[in-house]
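Let's do one together. I've listed all components of the complex below, 645 residues spread over two lines.
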Amino acid sequence: MTDHLKRWWPVGLLAVLLLAPYSALPLPGLLDGPLGSPGSLQLIALCLVYGALASGYDLLLGRTGLLSFGHALYFATGLYATDLAMLELGLGFVPAALFGVACSVALALLLGSVSLRVTGIGFSMVTLAFAQAGAILVQRNPGGLTGGEEGRSAPAEHLPDALVGIGNTANLYWIALAYLVLTLAVVHWTVSSPTGRVWAGIRENERRIEVLGLRPYGFKLVAFVVAGGLAGAGGVVHLLLTGGATPQAASSDATLALLVMVVLGGSGTRWGPLLGGVLYTWAAHRLGDLATSDAVGGLPGVLRVPLSQPLFLLGALFVAVVYLLPGGLAKLPARLRAGRAVRTLDVPAAPVTEGAA
Amino acid sequence: MNTIVLLACTGLGLGALYFLVASGLSLIFGLMDVLNFAHGALLSIGAYATWWAATEGGMGFWLAVLFGTVVGTAAAVLLELVLIRPLYARPRDQILATVGVGLALPALLMGVWGADARPFPQPEALAGTVRLLGAVVPVNRFVLMGAAVLVLLALRLFLARTRYGLIVRAGVEDRAMVTALGIDVRKAFTLVFAIGGAAAALGGALAGLYFGSVNPSQGTGLLVFAFVVVVMGGMGSVTGAAVASVAVGLVQQFANYYTAAGLGDLSVVVLLAVLLLVRPRGLTGRLA
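Okay, and this is what the predicted structure of the assembly comes out as:
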């Protein structure tokens, strides 16, 4: 019975998520309104999108061992290219979305092939430099295209009617959920493919892969391009959800946020990045509400100032997780089990199988 | 000609700023394999401490710069002792911990002093301009260049002539061997963090001079170019960082002037990409 439960809980969770828009369940503290209200659906959809983005990013960090600091660039490319294709080229939404994802893939191929020429930390720095160049380009508003600080809003007339307006939030929510399922499927499929096994080998010991007669460069590039494409698709969904493109999407903070999500949840595990992305996004939104609440406003300065900065709290939380929870939240049950097993000394510690596949 | 001289001076001033940030970053990376994401935050701490000492603390400018540098150094030592050292055996977690600090500290500065830029007090002696080959150049550019040259000379003397400099140099080459010889590399780690923090904080104080104001995100913005400089110069090489700083500062200024504003930042990244294609190990041939 418990085995069945363990095996089928993702399907159960998916069913619950699919039906969420029909529910009026109030979740005080967790959400502002009842579960099925547009505001709540919007927040949950954002959580799902970031959960998916973090899972895609983990293809690099947790699966291949590549610490990229420029992943937000591909997300922002999908976001801006789709929006601009509708605004400037007058394309319909579907061709524009395909164009956006294609741009992300092409850019990931181009920049990945350059940055993968350096290994280790050099790779991290180079990806950061490229992403920063992208962020600057977006900020500088070349030819009035990106709208600079203000960003650009999505053209309602080019979007299908079912995706516009607050009454259709449920449809956007389902799209976000579909994007999450797609990302998890791609990640699962690629990781268990022969290429995925080479990725795991590169993560453990790149030199050994070379000795086996394989060139890690090509395999790493595939991981980079797949992750870039998934991030681009995430940009499209984000565009629909928030109704526009803003320069924050391209900032280095956006990549660092993805990194925090993955490490918070547990990199290299199946559900960890998703969990981290959902928790981080939810916390970032709720902490923002907390900062403006009366309870915080009445506190003395020593407490009020740090509490009013969500980024400070998230940064501090991140440092705490790195220290106290190596492996992230996903490893927590296994650590607790292992701790119990050590204490009773008659049960061998459960092997950590989750995510090792 | 005037324009070229002015652009060259401004580019060299900016390059000096990059060098102040990148030298510490490069040493820390070379010795410890730690990409210090909190380095930009150390710069911001130096900048705000200087600004605070000069405005609310009522100190003279140079005393305020000294104060800012000392505070930045103390912050760097604290960072190494409290956060980096316990993660000695986990290099990637060391980097991640600095990422957390790099997010949290600027947010804290923003919480205390607000997100807006604060005007930086310029002492009268540095607020003027100098005529050089027909161009009118702000004096503070030369202050920056002078500071960078002094730091470069001091670092080179320290690395070449002192016992600790020898340990640091040897540690950059082969950390395992130095440890095997029975030398406690961890003291060198703290020392290098202190040096890096001091240079970054000095950079922060002088960045306030260069930009005329301080804001919480200044450090992070400069950090990215410092990363570019470190990669281009060859990881762990102070001299390489100096050469690359000059190149990056000049390219950025000239490209910003002669093409569209903003293209200078892009051209720096293009320069980096081209260099990596031709010489994947950077200018000095060192590999990460």
